Amino acid sequence: MAKLLYSATMSLDGFIAGPGGDMSWLTEYLGPNPALDAHVADIGALLVGNRTFGGDDPNRGTDKEGAYEGAWTGPQFVLTHRPPAEPVAGVTFVTDLDQGLRAAQDAAGDKYVSILGASVAHQCLDAGVLDEILVCIAPVLLGDGTRLFDRPGGANVKLERISLTHAPLATNVWFRVL
Questions:
Q1: How far is CA 24 from CA 100, 118, 134, in A?
Q2: 3-class SS at 43?
Q3: What's the alpha-carbon Rg for the chain, to the nearest Å?
Q4: Which residues contact 75 (CB under 8 A, 6 or more apart)?
Q5: Taking every pair of C-alpha atoms in the chain, what is the biggest distance, in angstroms?
Q6: What is the pLDDT of residues 146-166, one digit of tens each?
Q7: 46-57: b or e for each residue (b if 16 or more CB lie within 10 Å)?
Q8: Given 3.50.50.60, 3.40.50.300, 3.40.430.10, 3.40.50.10610, which CATH number is that of 4-177?
Q9: pTM for this structure?
Q10: pLDDT tens figures, 64-104
């Protein structure tokens, strides 16, 4: 069965998006990242939050638009309470987490389901189904925005580091959720 992996680029102070979901800060930290680039082939499906799906792509309008700087293609499942009236090519909209998880894991086979979006990752963590977390830490302090995990009053979650690698513009830390 597919493993669930939450991956995101984060500022050193813990934000994956700036105020209002602004992703423009990310542009100068994108670039060659051998560990992440090699991982793209291991992804079988995406489970994406609606805000992330409809949000600010720092590569919009370029050949690197889309997930993993445009390097990934495949089935995408968007978790939303308000599916659009018109279908979106290559995207399946799901209305609850269990339905989205089943569909994405079936589509991914023995590859990863990559979780994109803080809210979906939080829901997966709370449901006890998140397997791994890959964080690319960018050398910047944003000061405000959307946190990687925002769990006020939440319980401790133990992690085991799987790997630590360095790229020209980020440091990658990969964890297993215990």
A1: 28, 17, 21
A2: strand
A3: 15
A4: 44, 45, 46, 90, 92, 104, 107, 108
A5: 43
A6: 999 988 887 899 999 999 999
A7: bbbbbbbbebeb
A8: 3.40.430.10
A9: 0.90
A10: 666 666 568 899 999 999 898 888 888 999 999 999 999 99
Residue type at position 25: W
Q: Which residues pair with 121 in a beta bridge?
A: none
CA–CA distance, 69 with 9 (Å, rounded to integer) = 12
Please count the other Cβ atoms lying within 10 Å of the Cβ belonging to residue 155.
Answer: 7
- Give rounded-to-5 percent helix, strand, coil for the chain: 25, 30, 45
What is the DSSP track for 72-87? --S-EEEE-SS--SS-
Residue boundaries of the structural domains of the chain: 4-177
The one-letter amino acid code at 8 reads A
DSSP-based three-state secondary structure for 119 = helix
Residue type, 14: G
Q: Which two tokens stand for residue 62?
A: 């370029």
Query: Which tokens go with 1?
Result: 């069965």
